[in-house]
Amino acid sequence: MVITINRIIAHFLDKKERTTVADIDYSSELLTIDDFAIQLIDNLHSSISSNSSIKNAAFKEDETNSFTTSLADYLENSTDPKFYAFSKSLDLLKEKVERESLAKGGYYLFSDYYVDGNRYVAVILLRKKSGINIIKKGSVYKLDGAENINIEKIAMAARLNFNIFNSTGNDRKYLAVITTQSDGEVSEYFKEWILAAGMIKNTVNTDRLMRLIKTIKLPLDEDGDEISRSDFQRQVYDYVRTNSGRRVNIYNLSEHFYGINAKTAIKDYADANEITLDPEFKVGSKWKNLITIRAAVPGIILNVDFDKINENDVDVQSDHIIIRSEALAKQIRNDYDSAISLDGQ
Question: Where are the domains of the chain?
Fold first, then answer.
């Protein structure tokens, strides 16, 4: 991977958790582009690309703010002053985080670089922790040392793919947004600052994955036979609930049920059905709807999807069950009448 850095700068936004006061300590000039800067961008670019929480987005249409306008100015005329002005859009973020008591500050790294001939502009929030070698020398934050900054130290990031952004007649998403928040959701203040749109909520990801699981080709058991749909759904439900703390990675899920050579099984099926799905997310409360409730007494067997147990579909009382379904009643009545008719013959 060949890295060429055009410009890079770091500023420090000072904000303590559970406070509503923030301050920005700006660098007075751009960072020197040296071997460590190249190593850092190489590491961060790879970390963003491989991060399972990545969300694809675009800028909001018919809406601008200081972030998008200063970025547009810079992309139109890529000079050092224009890049510095773009990084000063951090003023707008400061206003937003001051309204969020739980928001925390950190180092904001702005960079414009090429990877194998493709241009990217990225803004990355790095938390102020030990091991992050960004230090203040005079009026400039500098990169110091040779340690790779790993993804755990990235709190949030937004990366613009300039080639896609600048192409015409292309509806592909050109913003890659990541977060390391436990719920997998990008903070609203960060999304509002970069004016990101089109990101998929966890609830929508959950609904889409459930739809895929209910229709995808069934995996095989140890004897090479397809397992039942209800068994598959229950096993998927249990796998996510017990193995990943309600977070699901569709590649790991595919490998677990379809084998090491089929890690993209769910992704491929989603693409074939034009269903957009994030690679990793936290499942919502509807995840339990994958479960099928089974009950049987002599002569009666019931398989009921979890979400059908309610007063409108399958109403479970203390000593009886009411099934409200005209279609089901018709099926039973028709089969019963047919059996009576055959018996009369």
Answer: 3-197, 202-288
